[in-house]
Write a structure and sequence with these properties.
It is globular and about 80 Å long. It is built from 20 helices and eight strands. Helix content is 60%, strand content 6%. It has a five-stranded mixed sheet with strand order 4-3-5-7-6, sandwiched between helices. With 518 residues, the chain is mainly alpha-helical. The relative contact order is 0.12.
Length: 518
């Protein structure tokens, strides 16, 4: 049956508003703490033609075995950066986001979602989901996860052979990021439902064998990586690892209110629609959503999974939800207000997207498409180290590790960086991530390890403790970061001029952004 003209017009307006909103939200992004390391590792692999088997970047784990489970993501990031610089990275991110929203679009098309509901869903997803696409390997996982949902939905609709694509998806996914484990879990839940649904089919044995073969192929596909079974040893370790010091692994209610609001909307809106529907079918989708909602509450890192599965539940249940209140929706007395509300929503989305795009273009001209927050990273202090050619074993905490690694390697090696769980001993990770409130922990950094340079926040207790010691000297302080050198002959030229080493007024980095790489 052909689509009515007025319906086609509504979809055209929706498509225009969604496109405007999408472009506005992929124009610019802030650099993630791990981006510098991923680029450095990927560029090094492109240059040498091989993956580093041991760690060459630290002085606390030098030569340690390195299972780089994100190597393919790093090659993609490095290749994009080499071909197009920052624009290449932005285009890669935009392409992955477009693939993700294309997958959601397939679900919308299959479920015949209304233009108004589609616009509301798009407004939420395009506004918030790009915030989790931070030029990290995780963005490959979110895109792959979306298409896993699409493929499972296709099989549930009776298109049986779509599942044969999944093993190939997992071959790529496991080399992009270890988040493929979430995909295996969701597919396992769907496989159980598919097997249960096939119990009354005359060819049920054939269907069960097919599902078992696909599941086995998906598991075996994850061994197709440079490390073989050793990769799984890391995966099992990472799954059981406690990360209380990492903010994104904490409970969602400990995060920024926007993250909490995003989580609550992602969970409550699908839950309300599900409760108002007849709740028949799609048991696996519902079970997977409930499990992911729980995991996202416990670990904010999983919020994008809750958003994507929540969107799938919403898309499936919304038409049924509308039919359950069809009497109210069909009332002609509210037809004009509904049409006016829809037109107003389209207008607001379009104007909001245009307004944000304008702001992002202006910000891009001043700060670059990929911005570095100078009040989060020691931009000026690291520039001082590079300019003065001060090199050595550098303690810089955890969050600054890969920023320093990018700018100062190979002349300086770091104490720890974002690879803490794949390379570093537990004691090193604890010192890098911990608050260092005890005397023993502080002394360990200087005395247990061959630390020569210390780069610490200016206002931190560690900086005050170091300032009271006689074996280190502060040679730089810009109010954001303070730099200490150990009293050794190599550093004497800078130590002798230490009283005049202050470079900037305190607080000058506040709110400032600089273009990548900072």
């Amino acid at each position: 049956m052909p689509m009515p003209v007025h319906h086609k017009t509504a979809w055209r307006w929706v498509a225009g508003a969604v496109l405007c909103l999408f472009v506005a939200n992929v124009w610019r992004v802030e650099a993630d703490a791990d981006l510098w390391g991923h680029l450095r590792f990927g560029l090094e692999s492109l240059s040498t033609g091989k993956l580093a088997a041991t760690d060459p970047y630290s002085y606390t784990a030098a030569g340690a075995a390195w299972t780089n489970h994100e190597w393919l993501s790093e090659l993609m990031l490095a290749g994009s950066y080499r071909l197009g610089g920052v624009r290449g990275l932005i285009l890669l991110r935009a392409g992955l986001l477009a693939l993700t929203f294309a997958g959601l679009g397939v679900l919308v098309w299959r479920r015949t979602l209304s233009p108004a509901a589609t616009l509301g869903l798009a407004l939420f997803m395009i506004t918030f989901l790009p915030e989790f696409y931070r030029l990290r390997p995780q963005m490959f996982t979110y895109t792959a996860f979306t298409w896993l949902i699409v493929i499972c939905d296709q099989h549930g609709a009776g298109r049986r052979w779509g599942l044969v694509v999944l093993p190939w998806l997992f071959v790529a996914w496991c080399n992009f990021h270890a988040g493929f484990v979430a995909g295996l879990g969701v597919f396992g839940i769907h496989s159980c439902m598919f097997a249960w649904q096939a119990r009354n089919l005359p060819n049920r044995r054939q269907e069960w064998c097919f599902l078992a073969a696909v599941m086995l192929a998906c598991i075996l596909a994850t061994v197709c990586n440079p490390y073989g079974l050793r990769y799984w040893r890391y995966v099992l370790f990472a799954i059981t690892l406690s990360r209380p010091e990492i903010t994104e692994w904490g409970p969602v209610w400990n995060h920024h209110p926007v993250v909490l609001a995003c989580y609550l909307t992602s969970v409550l809106a699908p839950a309300v629609v599900w409760l108002a529907s007849t709740r028949r079918g799609a048991v696996a989708e519902t079970a997977a959503f409930a499990l992911v909602a729980y995991l996202a509450a416990a670990h904010a890192r999983h919020v994008p999974f809750a958003m994507l599965l929540g969107a799938a539940v919403f898309i499936r249940r919304w038409p049924e939800f509308c039919r359950s209140i069809a009497g109210f929706l069909a009332d002609r007395t509210i037809a004009i207000p509904r049409a006016f509300a829809f037109a107003l929503l389209v207008l607001l989305v379009g104007l909001g997207g245009a307004s944000k795009l304008t702001r992002e273009v202006v910000a891009c001209q001043n700060e670059g498409a990929l911005a570095v927050q100078a009040d989060l990273y020691p931009v000026d202090a690291v520039s001082f180290l590079a300019r003065e050619h001060i090199e050595g074993n550098l303690y810089c905490g955890f969050n600054w590790g890969e920023f320093c690694l990018w700018h100062l390697a190979p002349g300086s090696r770091v104490f720890c960086d974002g690879r803490y769980e794949t390379v570093y001993p537990a004691d090193v990770s604890r010192l890098a991530l911990g608050p260092l409130v005890t005397e023993n922990d502080r002394r360990a950094i200087l005395e247990q390890y061959p630390t020569e340079i210390l780069l610490v926040p200016s206002a931190s207790p560690l900086a005050e403790w170091l300032a009271a010691r006689h074996d280190v000297v502060a040679v730089y302080d810009d109010g954001m970061a303070r730099l200490f050198l150990k009293r050794i002959d190599r550093f004497e030229p800078w130590i002798s001029t230490a009283p005049n080493a202050r470079q900037q007024a305190a607080g000058s980095a506040s709110g400032r952004h600089v273009p990548f790489p900072g």
